[in-house]
Amino acid sequence: MTQEELFKKLVAHCKEYGFIFPSSEIYDGLGAVYDYGQNGVELKNNIKSYWWDSMVKLHENIVGIDAAIFMHPRTWEASGHVGAFNDPLIDNKDSKKRYRADVLVEDWMAKQDEKIQKEVEKARKRFGEQFDEAQYLATSPRVADIVSKRDAVHKRFADALNDNNLDELKQIILDCEIVCPISGTRNWTDVRQFNLMFSTQMGSTADGASTIYLRPETAQGIFVNYLNVQKTGRMKLPFGIAQIGKAFRNEIVARQFIFRMREFEQMEMQFFVQPGEEMKWWNEWKNTRMAWHRALGFGDENYRFHDHDKLAHYANAATDVEYNFPFGFKEVEGIHSRTDFDLGRHQEFSGKKIQYFDPERGESYVPYVVETSIGVDRMFLQIMSAAYTEEKLENGEERVVLRIPAPLAPTKVAVMPLVKKDGLPEVAREIIDMLRFDFNVTYDEKDSIGKRYRRQDAVGTPFCVTVDHQTLEDRTVTVRHRDSMEQERVAIDELYRLVDSKVAMRHLLAKVKA
Ligand code: GAP
Questions:
Q1: Of 336, 353, 385, at which residue does a domain stop?
Q2: From atom 18 of ligand 1, which residue's Cα is the shortest distance away?
Q3: Long-range Cβ contacts of 393-398 (<8 Å, 24+ apart)
Q4: Number of domains composing the chain
Q5: What is the pTM (predicted TM-score) of this model?
Q6: Is 236 in the same domain as 118?
């Protein structure tokens, strides 16, 4: 099965099992907008708890807020979003399809990397056991040719982005002979900038309605509250403010399911530091955030940092945490050193002094900021991509199992009476009543036990508990483990401890802290 086929199956699975539905589907959906179903919302809430607790509970100097989506319009002038929150777009004149010019070039560069990988695989087959990959990469003329072309384009691309040179961006597309995937032609328009912010009117026209924006990032809600939190919380530098909330971007090309959406959710933390200390903290947060990702156990080799070619208007250093999705390594999170740009600009535009009095230095200054910013939905897709597994069992049957880390699983325990009579459902309900205050549990009595196991595997439930006739005699149940499919006999009184030992969020948090 190709990675593309796997991804298609994952998307279908998300719908079939109540994780994600297209928005307003009965009207044929709305581009790049999605709804979370009964299982999706549980997983999403657990991702948010994992992030929130890792920020606010694990750090004495980080507090949370929940700012409004609507903000004073001047906010977005000060932040630079009105002037500079643009993507370069290009149209194919034959297919009339619109693309992001930068993404076309990035995809071309990723294809060069795939070509190199294919050369390596071919050579590995040719040379067998003696194959030395490093030596091959260093000496193969074919690889050297691809690398030099890719690097030359990379350099031109980075320069074009940094200089805002849209003509050069188009020239790169032409020189790389990039074709429209629909029409197959190179009949491109010029590249032009497109502002990604959605706007609407607040107040009635008679009152003199003003244009306001749907926030394209949650960060600004933190910056405009910096003084409020610092003063009321008597916070001392360095300290952080965390927030989870919706953000909106009128993305030119909505691709790859929930990877790029027009309405999405962000988990952002702005860490305020002394000027001059920002690079130290930027490195510190890179490590902390990577540990958070790796604690999920999806394999360290599937994560990497990718430094930005083009720094955003507010940043002096920026890197992405990328995950190896079925469609290649892609950004999940950004870690940015935002300097004093945002607070400085809000000070200038609002006319209010936004400064910190540093008792140790005996002076006031505008703090510098290191930001960690991750999309909830993208994290959701990352987890689903990593967790979705198709397995052939020893008895020849197949199963689809979601290997979601147990603390994030939508449902923790499914309790199943073997039959719907003889008092077994009553005991099952008793077990549910014992567990439901601390864990998300479900009751399932329909179909054979085998079918019920498959249903729970498909939504990632770590434990299935079966109540049978022996239970009535000795108060024990069969516990079946999702990943190993092993079964064990456990006393009902022991169930709470067993479940807690695997699904409590503190186990994940302890790994991040370690
Ligand atoms: N405050 C900084 C900021 O917003 P960003 O790199 O534009 O930085 C941060 O976005 C994260 O938000 C990304 O790493 C991604 O996880 C998520 N994100 C951004 N745009 C998104 C979109 N259109 N759909 C889903 N997630 C998105």
A1: 385
A2: 375
A3: 393/485
A4: 3
A5: 0.90
A6: no
